[in-house]
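Slide 14.
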Amino acid sequence: MEQKSKRTAAAAIAAVLLFYGAAQMLGITVCPLRSAFGLSCPGCGMTRAWWALLAGDLQGAFHYHPLFWLPVPALLLLVFGDRLPDRVFRGLLFLMLALYLTVYGIRLADPADEVVWFHPERGMFLHLFHL
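Slide 15: predicted structure.
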């Protein structure tokens, strides 16, 4: 991975952290996307999964997000990816993205999943639109 790409990735991660930090300071304690649009994001449940893991509840961690472990290898790939052939690097990134989107789709389609849901009628955006 080129130095410029690493800086871009670091800036994107910092922007996401700042966004979520600002949301927390404003009192938005659930996912801001879920609050705004009534749609869980692909990473919904990730924080709760890590908290469950830190509490020693591996089953709970998988319940909240079955791919909770994926950010660790993704971060390693971003940091050390320049040591891999470009084709392998891109293939691993694609695989991780495909896993995320597959699990997200399955969870959205499961009406019994209370972590990931689609309820645009509960989103602030729709309420503002109706005003």
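Speaker note: The chain has a mean pLDDT of 84.
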